Every structure is written in structure tokens, then in C-alpha cells.
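Deliverable D5.2: sample structural annotation.
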Amino acid sequence: MAAKSVELAGKEGSQIEKAKEPESPTNTPQDNKKPSLVSRASDWARHNHGPVVAVATCLLFAIGAIQAGIFIKQLDVIRKDQRPWIKVEMIGSRGMAFTEETPALKPGIKLTNTGKTPSKSISAQVFIEEVKNGEVPQFNAPIFHTLDIGAMFPNSPEEIAPDGNWQYYLSDAAYQKFYLSKTIFFVFYSTVTYKDVFGRDHWTKYCVVIYPGSVSVPYKSLECTKYNDTDNN
């Protein structure tokens, strides 16, 4: 009897202990909700402040560099559209007329600014080279004349007329070869340098063949044609 009483007392004590144990907490839907993407990004930025600032600075610098490059290209296009262009011409016929009494070539030159703004510090070096027919010019003749001009405005040409101011005298032998036997010819070529109003350097090259009137003798003038050129700055 006493043993049963002890057993009942133990069961009751066990039940009392179980009743005293706290219930395990239950997770509510709100507790299971994950942080938002904005919240996580904000937390990440706070923990990585240094790298974020560095990346943002690099991006801003790259964008600024791209915009600066575009702006510089636009300015260059505007400058090229407004720049001066010097056109060179030899005045007079290619078959330069001269007499046996005065065997001399008497070419003239004309410079014209065909651009939109003035050109400055213009210097034209003029050459005349004797070339044996069948050969090509070497473009190594000494300077025949130099024409210097301080400034040239658009469509206001400067020229040296072919009136004898510039004379290239021929020897008797050269006269015979050029005018009679036609075994030589001459090239008139020029290099013109100048500046634009922005201070940038420019140049023009010009070449033309001089032969004695209307002739059927073929002259090699391809190299002279290829000499004609200009800068594209």
C-alpha cells in the first residue's frame, strides 16, 4: 500500500514538472519575413563604404572623360570647318612664251584663301626644276623665289603677275633642248606654309609642268601631279 502511494506521488510530481515547463515559442509569419533588397543593399553599403565610394568616383571620372572627349571632337570639327585653305596657282600658260633674245621663263603665282577665316604668316617658296624628258622630277631645286605675306583674308588673293618680275633664265643649251628639240621640260612647284587664327600650322604643295606650247611629245608629269597635296589638320 505504501509502495503504491509512493508511485502515485512520483507520477503526480512528474506531471507537475511537465506543467511547469514553458511552451516553446512559435514562429510567426512576420518573424520569418526576409529583409528587403533595399535594406540588404543599404546594409552592404554601410559595411563596404570605402569600396563603394571608390567605384562611384571611378564611374564619375570615366563619364567626365567621355564627355570631355566628345566635346573636344566637336570643337575640332568646328575648327576644321572654319579654318583657312590656301589655294596655289601658277599664272600664265603652261607653254610659257619667251623669245630667243631673252630666253627666260616668266611665271607668276597666285595665292587665294578659300577658307572661312584669315590665314597668317604665309610663306610661299617657289622652285623651278629642269627635268630630262623620260625622267621624273626630284624636287631638289634651289629656291627660285619666296613670297611672304603677313595675313590673307578669305577670297582676297595675292599674286605676282607674269610680267617679268620673276624670270628664270635659260642657257643656250637649255633653250635648244627645251624649245627646239623638246628633250627637257620644267616643273614649277611651290610649298606654302601658314597659320590659322587658332595658331595651328598648315601647308599646301603645288606643282605644274611647263612645256613649250602645244606639243605632241609626252611628258612624264605623274610625280608632279602626286606632289599636289594639303594638310588636313
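Annotation notes: The longest strand covers residues 119-132. The radius of gyration is 46 Å.
The annotation will be released with the project's public dataset once the embargo ends.
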